[in-house]
Amino acid sequence: MTRLLFVMRHGDAEPEAASDFERRLTDAGREQVVLRSRALRQRGVLPELIVSSPLLRARETAGLVNRTLGIPGDFTVSNDIVPEGDCERVALQLFGENETVMLVTHQPFASRFVHYMTGEDVSMTTAAIACISVAQSAPDAGKLEWLLAE
């Protein structure tokens, strides 16, 4: 069975905060995320599961996507999809019972994970979304279907 994976980088965030963990989205970042979410809705994309990094800017992004797309329930948080996350570890945990999953994460993990899954080098600008079709959760086993980026 082919499943869909969406890898999204958080929207534009404040350059500084008390800690990197606490950096919030800027107004422009919130607007980026809402616009990207609307573009997903126009494509008929409705992830069954959204998984966010625990960092505040990613959680804010996931919440905006969730609300904009009208996904019932809340997103989940994973400590594995942080900037220094392990691609193999994440790939092994991806889908469970779900056929469409969105990861909301950071650089450099977003670009590294897309490359790990597809072999493609992509530029994951803020609020960029890569759509990957996946038959199995293994290196280079996915196909980059499209990329929404500036």
Topology at a glance:
Blueprint: E1 3-9, H1 27-42, E2 49-52, H2 56-69, E3 76-77, H3 87-92, E4 100-105, H4 109-118, E5 129-134, E6 142-148
Parallel strand pairs: 1-4, 2-3, 2-4
Antiparallel strand pairs: 1-5, 5-6
Structure description:
The protein has 150 residues and is of the alpha/beta class. It has 4 helices and 6 strands; from the N terminus they run E-H-E-H-E-H-E-H-E-E. It has one domain (3-148): Rossmann fold. The protein has a 6-stranded mixed β-sheet with strand order 3-2-4-1-5-6, with helices on both faces. The chain is globular and about 40 Å long.
Our estimate of the beta-strand percent is: 15-25%
Number of strand elements: 6
Please name the fourth-level CATH homologous superfamily.
Phosphoglycerate mutase-like
Number of domains: 1
Instruction: Describe the sheet with the most strands.
Output: 6 strands, mixed
Q: Any idea what the CATH architecture is? A: 3-Layer(aba) Sandwich
Number of helices: 4
CATH top level is Alpha Beta
How do the helices and strands follow one another from N- to C-terminus? EHEHEHEHEE
Sequence stretches where pLDDT stays below 50 over 5 or more residues:
none
Mean pLDDT: 94
Query: Biggest sheet, strands in spatial order?
Result: 3-2-4-1-5-6
Instruction: Describe the global form.
Output: globular
The end-to-end span amounts to 31 Å
Spatial extent as radius of gyration: 14 Å
Structural class: alpha/beta
What is CATH's topology name? Rossmann fold
Q: How helical, in percent, are the residues? A: 25-40%
Key features of this structure:
Rossmann fold; globular
